Amino acid sequence: MCGWSFAIAQDNSTLLDRKVSLQITNVPLDVVLLDISSQGGFTFSYNTDIIDRDRKISLSVFDKPVKSVLDILFEGKMQYSVKGKHIILTLKPQKKVVSERVVKGIIYDAASGNKLSGTSIYDKRSSISVISDAEGRFTIKQKTKEVSTQTWRLNVSKANYRDTIIEVKHDENSPISIYLNTLKNQMQDDSLMMDSINKSIESLLFASMLNETEKANMVNITDTLRRKVQIGFVPFVGTNMLLSGNTVNDYSLNVLMGYSMGTQKIEVGGLVNADRGNAGKVQLAGLGNIVTGSFNGMQAGGVFNTNFREVKGLQLAGVANANLSSMQGGQIAGAVNVNLKQTNAFQVAGVANVGLKNLKGTQLAGVLNVTLKEMQGMQIAGVVNYATTVKGSQLGFLNVSDSCSGVPIGFLSFVRKGYHKFEISTDEVMPLNVSLRTGVRSFYNIVNAGMQLKHMDTISWSFGYGIGTTARLSSAWSLNLDLTVNQLMTGNRINNFNPWGKFAVTVDWRVAKGISLAAGPVLNAFWVKTSDPDYEKYFKQIPPYTFYNDQDSQTNEYTASMWIGGKVAVRFF
After folding, report:
1. For residue 534, what pLDDT is reported?
2. CB neighbours of 55 closer than 8 A, spacing ≥ 6?
3. Which member of 32, 339, 351, 503 has the greatest number of CB atoms within 10 A?
């Protein structure tokens, strides 16, 4: 059978460095290991499933380190570790060999036999894709760490052709021919036309940021790939590679500019996030967000947010929010909010809010609010509010609408189907007065002017502004309450602010269509500065009589007078 001898130096060296000698022929492996452990003064520890203990061993070694002997026994496939008086044997991790699968082929039109260029060939699992060249040829490669015996499933897609799946055997070396059938009897309904329009817009929008393969994939591939996480640098450099525009991600991190089919949960971009399809729940970008589908959630862009379809949620933009479809929720922009369709939201903009369809909610803008259809709610603007139909209120310097069932409040309000009166009147001070009333019956603005002919050498006149309301008493009769403040002048100069306030209560009688007569009492209050150069000659004589006359006891500068007067007027429109 065998004979063996050994010599061991019992020193401080590790167990693997201890020397053993063997002279064996056809001895089972487990017996050999027992002999080595006896010579070395230790024990082996291993999983019996990884070692063939019955394997016969023939070996002749003299005074060799334990490690060297073990390398011979296991042909370098085991690794060793020392723990106390034990040597633990485990399998070495196998190095994965990187290999490459290559498939070559030509794409043909099945009916005509013509070669098809610009066809997308891709692998769903790995996101590898190529497009066929001008001669219909393609080469697709995949690096793998294990040589696969499985067939390689590839998808083949081209616009207006039926999608095809091919399976290539692992040992397939010769070029393959692929024939595509055209799609027939496509219904040209509104949805298909809209998809075609959107694809055209997408092509123009993303043309500058995509390479030729991505552009082709965007047009060719109708299937949707899905990934949990996507990390990208620019649209065609990322974990989804050239299929990023056909992939929907749960989470997406874009270092500079991202491009995907859609995002379902969170997307963050250093500059721009661009989604061909739907997106949500949170989208954050240093520059802007572009979504050609619908968006549901919170969208924040340092400069802009742009959405092609319905938006539900909150939009925040440093400059502008622009939506080509309907909006529900809220919009806040440093400059402009724009919605092309139905809007149910509050809008806050530094410059303007613009809606081309109906709006239900509140618009608040530093300069301008515009709703081209019906406005239900409130418009507040620093300068101008405009809506075709207002069912609510407007608050601004100038309010304009076609019809208003609420109250427009501002310096001047014009409602085409509202309240308009041009008035010529006379009273006890100014024999000739003209005024324009505009707004709605419940609240209108008054701009007026008057002239006094008492002193022919110098004409005294007044101009003023006021507000009023009217109540219908019957089909022909109504009651007006007007409050105005006027400035009196002589000639073309204003020396001081000498306000003349009037509160008029008049009864209006419509005598014919577009013509009415009005008359009623007026409470007058006049404050004039006694040092005014025109005080003695003109302003002191303005009140024809008074029931109150008082001078400021502290400054002795202003005198106040009050009297009851009246007016008679003819009104037109």
Report:
1. 83
2. 28, 29
3. 339
